[in-house]
Design goal:
The protein is mainly α. It has one domain. It is built from 9 helices and 2 strands. The protein has a two-stranded antiparallel sheet with strand order 1-2. Helix 6 packs parallel to helix 8.
Length: 257
């Protein structure tokens, strides 16, 4: 019976999938644009407004003994900061701020599906923009800490730009198609698709945000790690050996005393 229903609706499912992958343009401010781009504009405006409200009216009222909202915000910042500090110890403050913004953008850009709004990252252009941003930050970190040698190490890994963008796009579009497929099956059309859609969307938002900031901090930390020339390495090794020898001599002298 299930197989019969699926076969009977094969044409409808194909049209639904095609519409999910290639939606019609929508009107926005007198322009005909992709619905994902419209979501990006609206989300960016909403994040800016909410951020200004928090900075001007909420954060100045934070107390030494935090309340629930303050604890939640501090825990979220601490979580992202710890990831940045572990993988990018040379400039974790800057990378942590970038990662926190990326978490907000990716998670909210995915969770908006729960409101019936098309997600941002199901458009390849949005994934490319995030990948270009991450790659530019890695390049800047390599130049800042290692000059031309750092820039060269980042530029030779140009495949990161493609792998990050297509990995993110593949995950997001795969999730969209899975959700659309669940909703299209009639014998699950009472309540289960809603539950599956909500859980899958939340899970997807969390996982994709975490993977993105993890890759960003790891590759940035690798690019920003100070590199020493052969002479510098030899001098450092010689100083270390000399220090160890002095410690041994001092230990022997104490033993005679």
């Amino acid at each position: 019976m299930i197989t019969g229903n699926l076969l009977a609706e094969e044409g409808d499912i194909g049209e639904m999938m095609q519409e999910a992958l290639f939606p019609d343009n929508v009107e926005f401010l007198g322009m005909s644009i992709n619905p994902s781009l419209r979501t990006a504009f609206l989300l960016t405006a909403a994040v800016i407004v909410i951020g200004l409200i928090l900075r001007l009216f909420v954060i100045p009222r934070f107390k030494t003994v935090p309340g629930r909202f303050q604890c939640l915000l501090e825990k979220a910042c601490e979580f992202v900061e710890n990831i940045a500090k572990e993988n990018s110890p040379h400039s974790y403050g800057f990378v942590g701020c970038v990662c926190f913004g990326a978490v907000i953008y990716i998670s909210m850009g995915t969770l908006c599906e729960l409101l019936g709004i098309r997600a941002i990252l199901v458009d390849l252009n949005a994934c490319l923009a995030l990948a270009v941003t991450a790659y530019s930050i890695m390049l800047a970190g390599g130049i800042k800490f290692n000059k031309l040698r750092g820039a060269g190490s980042v530029l030779k890994d140009f495949s990161l730009l493609l792998s990050m963008s297509f990995r993110l796009f593949g995950s997001m579009i795969g999730g969209l198609m899975m959700t659309e497929l669940v909703y299209s099956v009639l014998f699950l059309s009472i309540g289960l698709p809603v539950l599956v859609g909500v859980v899958f969307t939340i899970f997807h938002a969390v996982i994709q945000s975490y993977v993105y900031i993890l890759l960003l901090t790891m590759f940035y930390g690798e690019a920003a790690e100070p590199r020493m020339l052969n002479g510098e390495k030899a001098n450092k090794k010689e100083k270390k050996n000399k220090k160890n020898k002095n410690n041994i001599d001092q230990t022997i002298e104490r033993s005679y005393v």
